[in-house]
Amino acid sequence: MGEIHIVEGDLESFAKTVGDIPEERLNSVDSETSLREATVGMPGSDSKAYAAGYGAAVNEECKKASAGFKKFKENMLAAAAEYSQAEDDTTAAWRRFSQEAQAPGPSRVGVPGVDRRGGRLVHGGGDR
């Protein structure tokens, strides 16, 4: 599996771009009115009776898509915040690890459950 490479600000930028779709495009759709107006040129047509209903259905689907994009934006921003926090936590842990490794005196850094005594490794109380 390859590494994930995230550039700072990319997730936020992506979330904003996706989040702008509802405001810029979907919320301005008014198919119902457009189709109702189009029926003026279709007196007596069977299509005229269905046009406004189809337009309303398109408007409803746009509202659903808009809500989905907004939720996606919220989730993406939450993921970006979690990623940022994980990066901060990892950086702090490595900094503590590095400071402990350089501290004078007996090192507290090592492999859990493995002790060094006289140059030999002691595992779980038994010598090897």
In short:
The chain is mainly alpha-helical. The chain has helices at 10-24, 31-38, 46-102, and strands spanning 114-117, 120-123, 126-127. The chain is rod-shaped.
How is this structure best described in words?
The protein has 128 residues and is mainly α. It has one domain (10-104). It is 62% helix and 8% strand. It is built from three helices and three strands, in the order H-H-H-E-E-E. Strands 1-2-3 form a three-stranded antiparallel sheet, with no helix packed on it. The relative contact order is 0.10.
Topology:
Blueprint lengths: L9 H15 L6 H8 L7 H57 L11 E4 L2 E4 L2 E2 L1
Antiparallel strand pairs: 1-2, 2-3
Helix pairs in contact: 1-3, 2-3
Proportion of helical residues: 55-70%
Report the total helices.
Answer: 3
Low-confidence stretches: none
Which class do the helix and strand fractions yield? mainly alpha
Global morphology? rod-shaped
Overall residue-averaged pLDDT value: 77
Count of the separate structural domains: 1
Instruction: Tell me about the largest β-sheet.
Output: 3 strands, antiparallel
Alpha carbon gyration radius: 31 Å
Strand order of the largest sheet: 1-2-3
* Proportion of residues in extended strands: 5-15%
Q: Give me the strand/helix succession.
A: HHHEEE
Distance between the termini: 36 Å
Q: Quick one: how many beta strands? A: 3
